[in-house]
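sorry for the late reply, my laptop died twice this morning and i had to redo everyting from scratch. anyway the thing you sent over, i finally got around to it. pasting the sequence first so we're on the same page, its 316 residues, then the predicted structure underneath. double check i copied it right bc i was rushing
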Amino acid sequence: MTINLFQDPISSYRESDTDDDLDNEIVELERKLAAAKAKRCKHPRSRLEGDSSSSSSSPEQPLLAPNLPNHFHLLLSDSALPLGSFAFSSGLESYLAHGHKSNPYHPHTSFAAFLPLSISSYASTTLPFVLSAHRDLSLSNLVELDDAQDASIICTVGRRASVAQGRALLGIWERSFSQSLPPLGSSVVTAAQRGDLKAFGLLVKRGSSKEIPDASAHLAPLFGAICSVVGLSLQQTAYIFLFGHVKALVSAAVRAGMFGPYQAQKILAGETVQELITEMIKREWRTKVERAGQNVPVMDLWFGRHEVLYSRIFNS
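ok and here's the structure:
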């Protein structure tokens, strides 16, 4: 038997194979090849080392370019951000003290009861200022918002906490964040936006020695302005701001002995917190700063009574 090495490969197929059969087989092989490539791209080792056989434009390729908003999203939502919130309980310590069993007016105290009140109060008094500063980053608007919030906070303890955390955030911006931004012209950050924040910082420093300062540097307007500069969306800004309050509140509850760290993470990851934050953002989305104010009056009482407690571990 003689074997022809130069035989046409097509002629090696059975005579019974039609063109349709061959086309179907080709389609099936191409489908299997595409599935195998997709598996390879999803493999952990492939994602780390890269796949030289795949095209660089493949949708499975990871996004390796620097992403400024995502980076600052993580920074601003980090519990290690030195705002000083660790020292504040946002009225929780006073709530526990005034809800002692010996007090007939508050026989029951629980974190589950306090959390919705605290989030609602915090959102109604601060979130409109965050959103307004994000929408308009001009120096004049920032000064106006800061002055309006200073006037809207009735409780001295709450005002002091807002200013302390706001000045801490301003210091973080000036010493760290502003120096880490890309050069002008290489991002959406403009010289005017950076200049307005710098000018606001100078106003705060210049007025610190005055009886009536030019600017107090409240947390809410500054948070909205900084988030706008680094490219975070309005919704991201609002969610990070409220979630930061919840994290500080849960941390205070752990240190007050209400529950342990595992229960704290369960609360933070739970649907209740997510739904509360989302509901508050929807409620305050179009609220004007002129209508911002305390909607849980007893919260101001808990804040104000904190300083007269016999013993305390928090500043508020």
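Residues 111-135 form the longest helix (25 residues).
thats about all i looked at so far, will dig more tmrw
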